[in-house]
């Protein structure tokens, strides 16, 4: 078969692409029967592995990549620090790379691995909803997705993930606002490109208000981009459009702080005029005045767990894992109970 690749071999053998890759690279976690079957097909079709890919796979690199979506979200800072400590403790080196807001995250991850010949990769944020095993077939590099959420894909065996239940956490945050008596609740979330997190938090928002008999109105939604400025601008657009807000749920603390600043700039008070609920639990939320009520994510532990899983795969040939961490609602000064 001319120009055959490992996908063709996998189809003929009736096995996964990753199984063919493990056979080619002499990984031990393949049964002898499967190994023999795959090798017979390889010989029969005269398959010749891509040399550059083989060289990449045989690399003795001790570099671990961390790919961060965007450069503005301080929530990732603690995760990165925790990963770096775990990587250094094992004698490896961390290479940090920022992916801009509009680049394709899967393509950026693949290019990063190939360019740096990484031993492993942890991705913070980004949209990996269309990630397929074929994307990783020539890399043979373990991938861990952290702080992103592929809700329906948590059981897929060719990558690992460490995340939270974004929809549930958002539901609990907005339910808290509803139980304080708020009915005119706005939301600032991220756009269509943030399917893995922003969309799930919007779903949680919609479920919570529906539970309390509040109809969803698109006029009460605005879009931001994980920056102070976008939160500031989104709040102003929202209040200009609907002037009767009593509370706002913002799907990241950095946007929530920008929104809070816009509220104060308009001569309004927090929480007397508008209550503000954030999400992430970054340090800025604690030291902003008034301090933000927010959903706290365990960032440091998320980083540590991501690194632990990655090195279990690299050093101990363990299987991929999908871990879901708990969040905590931190009550502070920015939300008020209505009389």
Automatic annotation (TrEMBL):
Keywords recorded for this protein, A-Z: DNA-binding, Transcription, Transcription regulation
GO molecular function: DNA-binding transcription factor activity; transcription cis-regulatory region binding
Signal sequence region: none
Keyword DNA-binding included in the entry's annotation: yes
Pfam families recorded: LacI, Peripla_BP_3
Domain HTH lacI-type, first and last residues per copy: 4-58
Record keyword Transport present: no
Gene3D superfamilies, sorted: 3.40.50.2300, lambda repressor-like DNA-binding domains
InterPro entries, per database record: HTH_LacI, LacI/GalR-like_sensor, Lambda_DNA-bd_dom_sf, Peripla_BP_I
Membrane-crossing segments per the record: none
Protein name: Transcriptional regulator, LacI family
Organism taxonomic ancestry: Bacteria, Bacillati, Bacillota, Clostridia, Peptostreptococcales
